[in-house]
Amino acid sequence: GLSQYSSDPRTEWDLSAYSTRDQVLEAMRNLRYKGGNTFTGLALTHVLEQNLKPEAGARLEAEKLVILLTDGKSQDDANLAAQTLKNLGIEIFAIGVKNADEAELKQVASEPLELTVYNVLDFPLLSSLVGRLTRVLCTWIKEKSNKENADIPVNTGPQLSPTDLKISAVTSKSMHLTWSPPLRPPKKYRIVYYPSKGGISKEVVLDGAVSSLQLSNLTSHTEYLVSVFPVYDTVVGDGLRGVTSTLPLSSPRSLRVSELSHNSMRLSWKAAQGATQYLVLCSAAPDGAED
């Protein structure tokens, strides 16, 4: 579904309007840009009252996601309207363009902000977000679907959900996770992690008395999405989510040049930990072809 807004929100099409990808793309091609003011709070209220109703195609069992795209600071209270949606279990992703207020985007969006807030300098740059945003959204929905397929009810109450996920001791191949357990200890935890740019999802199951985990054998210089779910006998608590990148592999240091002649030089450096080979590239300065 899609609504466009300025000072007055307008529903372009409801969730039930189209049933194929091609129909949605055709509707996008025929969409006319709506200029005007930026009343984001009014727009979010419109989405809640008009677009997320069963008569507009919203399914009661489906995960509710709202993607806000804005190029300016709201002229009304966007935070209050956003909080109303979030209190009802609706997740908000905020994308800013040009003159968007990043502080406002972070207020409006759901946690964790590393996954739900995006900002680009101009409209053509939005294309650079499509891949990552698609993966994040699909994974978000998939996690919820997995719970439904297992016929396990989801409980988002503070008694059954952990808090305060911290990711520390990050290296090129590992990271350490800790979290605060819920008031009622779970039977076990499911920890799911995977590269944000696509890759195989891996899972670790821990005893409910444990609230930390060392993830090892990771890929260097890679952004990972991490989710922690508490599992009870008949209930799965709401999950914690985080995002962190592993460090690049260690680099050689202290490059020195010696034994210079008219056609040769000797290079030496301090070794990079774990390196099995080195690639040395040389080119004529400043803009010569690479040798």
TrEMBL record:
Localization, UniProt: Secreted, Extracellular space, Extracellular matrix
InterPro entries xrefs: ECM_Assembly_Org, FN3_dom, FN3_sf, Ig-like_fold, VWF_A, vWFA_dom_sf
Source lineage: Eukaryota, Metazoa, Chordata, Craniata, Vertebrata
Protein name listed in UniProt: COKA1 protein
Entry keyword set: Extracellular matrix, Secreted
Coiled-coil intervals, chain numbering: none
Keyword Transit peptide: no
Pfam families: fn3 (PF00041), VWA (PF00092)
Ranges of residues in domain VWFA: 1-133
Keyword Methyltransferase: no
Ranges where the Fibronectin type-III domain occurs: 161-250
Gene of this entry: Col20a1
